[in-house]
Amino acid sequence: MRLRGGSSQAEVDEMLQTLINKSPIMLFMKGSPSQPQCGFSKQMVSLLQRHNIEFDHFDILQDDLVRQELKRFSKWATYPQLYVNGELVGGLDICKELVEAGELEKYCKVAMEKKQITPGLIENKLTQALDATLVKAEDLSDGCGMKFSILIVSPRFDGMPLVERHRAVHAALEKETPDIHALTLKCLTPQQHQAATAS
């Protein structure tokens, strides 16, 4: 993802937040983990790897607009910058302090264990659980995985009351529903879906 010059500040901020939310643990650094381009980034990568913390990264040297705008957005003037669950933790010195306090690994482990709920994850689970011929899930929470609109087309729904169809969907997503704040469901048989698309 690259930011475009000429975008409004609101658009830039939205794109930066999307980039930050790309992974539960996101490191903005100079270079890549295999080829860091500054000593601080190299130390940060080493620190995270030493504590078995899985992270994604963004090379700020590849996008000057991200490099400049993220400093404004985060109110943090230097790199690397570490984000956990979309929130800035800080730079190398802060992370070293968290390591000494025994907090960094604990903090990051929670983020790693919290599996991101995505439209793809929902579509795969419902397709398998309900023998669905079509599942379309849309995240209505700006990529946060908390609010979804889902269309499910399955022959299993034939002769099944609407409330039972909804129960079947919730049962299939039993592990995910505690983290989902709202679900809008449209449960159709293949015949109902065909009639709806034909009209």
From TrEMBL:
Keyword list, A-Z: Iron, Iron-sulfur, Metal-binding
Keyword Iron: yes
Domain Glutaredoxin, residue spans: 25-89
Lineage top rank: taxon: Eukaryota
GO cellular component, one term: cytosol
Any one GO MF annotation of this record: iron-sulfur cluster binding
Biological process according to GO: intracellular iron ion homeostasis
Pfam families per UniProt: BolA, Glutaredoxin
The UniProt record lists the keyword tRNA-binding: no
InterPro entries hit by this protein: BolA, BolA-like_sf, Glutaredoxin, GRX_PICOT-like, Monothiol_GRX-rel, Thioredoxin-like_sf
PANTHER family: GLUTAREDOXIN FAMILY MEMBER, GLUTAREDOXIN-3
Homology family: Belongs to the BolA/IbaG family.
Name of the protein this chain belongs to: Glutaredoxin domain-containing protein
Organism: Guillardia theta
